[in-house]
Design a protein that fits this description.
The chain is α+β, with helices and mostly antiparallel strands. It folds into 4 domains: about 50-150, Thrombin, subunit H; about 165-265, Thrombin, subunit H (Beta Barrel), CATH 2.40.10.10; about 275-360, Roll (Pdz3 Domain); about 370-464, PDZ domain (Pdz3 Domain), CATH 2.30.42. Helices cover about 20% and strands about 35% of the residues. The protein contains 10 helices and 27 strands. Strands 21, 22, 23, 24, 25, 26 and 27 form a 7-stranded antiparallel beta sheet that branches. Strands 3-4-5-8-7-6 form a 6-stranded antiparallel beta barrel. It has a 6-stranded antiparallel barrel with strand order 9-10-11-14-13-12. The N and C termini lie far apart (about 110 Å).
Length: about 475
């Protein structure tokens, strides 16, 4: 009897061991080689991260900002009435933290976000091994929020670029950066969505959305796949209190790489234009146009003399592909064209009257936005204003409107304004574009107060 019980017990134990082994096999599916380490086959990202972490750095900046004072002290009539002496604006030093990614070890080139280094007087980079370097700004593109900086250092580790266009929703990714100044912080998650746009975060949006924790300070850091390849640059979050709630966004590495190549070669992004106004082709519009196809970019306007006009494009045409890549929305067409170099040829597949056609257009340089300041407000007589030129010392470092030309002896000249100055605010309202300045200046009936940047200094100009 005892022998029989022993036999049954041994048999039960054997079954239990077999069952546990089976469950273990089911519960531990095949993992990428980079995610397996240790003598017991423990799932871990450590081997991959040991190679990747030296390529992600801490970026700190120092900038000078003007201290806001009572507007009365900037009112010329108030100062004249109380006989107050002129004085330069009070300033203070401001520091901020972000992250960066080494992408070229030989040249010392790093990728980060434009908003991390914008308006910085000094950029410092701290490596994983503790070495500190002062970085030089090579160039930045505010429209995509990409910046390229350079350090003079040896024995650097660069991250290889991955193919961000091959990502799929559900792929595992890892975010690395310096949230809240905590350098070399690693979080993991999945790709939650692709091609996110229309968020109003940047001019050109084609974000990777991820639930890997991204917090303030992660900006400019790396989003990598499980093989340690760079697939994105972490750049923004959506959160009610500015913290992580599982919705983060990264710039695709292919887009960042294209922008970087242009910045390194030309010092700027030579953004081209096709000369069309487009909108999404909704199901209702497709039905009204007798099209079975929904999705794509519907051409609503063609600018005379533009590359689109020369190629024969017409309002009502629907662009469904560009150089063989599908066009799913107006923003996808805008992103694709906006990153093409001036002079390059592009093949567009369009739908016209339900038939597919292919046209070829040559990307042209967009016309420069210029305006005579007197058209905005008669007090601004004598100056020509426009967007900051790419070769300007403040290009990529300041946002505002440049004084392209100024007439000697004019009221603005007498007030101290000179060619190359950058107007950053009007009547204490920030201006980034000519349109912003137009909106503020046209509505001004009294004296106009301009905040102007010239090199590393800033000052106010009052126009009565």
């Amino acid at each position: 009897m005892i022998a029989k019980l022993k036999k049954m017990t041994f048999k039960a134990i054997s079954i239990l061991v077999l069952t546990v082994a089976t469950i273990s096999c089911v519960a531990a599916p095949d993992l990428p080689p980079a995610a397996v380490a240790g003598p017991f086959g423990r799932a871990s990202l450590a081997p991959m991260l040991e190679k990747v972490l030296p390529g992600v750095v801490n970026v700190s900046t120092t900038s000078t900002v003007n201290i806001q004072e009572n507007p009365l002290f900037n009112d010329p009539f108030f100062r004249r009435f109380f006989d107050l002496p002129d004085r330069p604006p009070r300033q203070r030093q401001r520091q901020s933290l972000g992250s960066g990614v080494i992408v070229d070890a030989d040249q010392g080139l790093l990728l980060t976000n434009h908003h991390v280094i914008a308006n910085a007087d000094r950029i410092s980079v701290t490596l994983q091994d503790g070495r500190d370097f002062e970085a030089k700004l090579i160039g930045a593109d505010p429209e995509t929020d990409v910046a390229v900086i350079k350090i003079d250092a040896k024995n650097l580790t660069a991250l290889p670029f991955g193919e961000s266009q091959s990502l799929r929703v559900g792929d595992f990714v890892v975010a690395i950066g310096s949230p809240f100044g905590l350098s070399q912080t690693v979080t993991s998650g999945i790709v939650s969505a692709l091609g996110r746009s229309g968020l109003g975060i940047e001019g050109y949006e084609d974000f990777i959305q991820t639930d890997a924790s991204i917090n303030p300070g992660n900006s400019g850091g790396a989003l990598v796949d499980l093989d340690g390849r760079l697939v994105g640059i972490n750049t923004a979050i959506v959160g009610p209190a500015g913290g992580n709630v599982g919705i983060g966004f990264a710039i695709p590495s292919n887009l960042a790489k294209t922008v970087m190549q242009q910045i390194v070669q030309y010092g700027e992004v030579q953004r081209g234009q096709l000369g069309v106004g487009v909108q999404d082709l909704t199901p209702d519009l497709a039905k009204a146009l007798n099209l079975e196809h929904s999705g794509g970019a519907l051409i609503s306007q063609v600018q005379p003399g533009s590359p689109a006009a020369k190629a024969g494009l017409r309002p009502g045409d629907v662009v469904v592909a560009i150089d063989g890549a599908p066009v799913t929305s107006a923003s996808s067409l805008r992103n694709a064209v906006g990153l093409m170099r001036v002079g390059s040829e592009v093949k567009l597949e369009i739908l016209r009257d339900g038939e597919k056609r292919t046209v070829t257009a040559q990307i042209a340089k967009p016309p420069r936005e210029k305006v005579q300041a007197a058209r905005l407000n008669e007090r601004l007589q004598g100056a020509e204003l426009g967007a900051i030129e790419p070769g300007h010392p403040l290009a990529g470092r300041a946002q505002g409107v440049e004084v392209l030309n100024i007439e000697p002896g004019s009221l603005l000249w007498q007030a101290g304004l000179r060619r190359g100055d950058v107007i950053v605010s009007v009547n204490r309202q920030e201006v980034r574009t000519v349109e912003d300045l137009r909106r503020v200046a046209e509505g001004s009936r009294g004296p106009i107060l301009l905040n102007v940047r010239r090199g590393e200094s800033a000052f106010f100009v009052a126009i009565g």
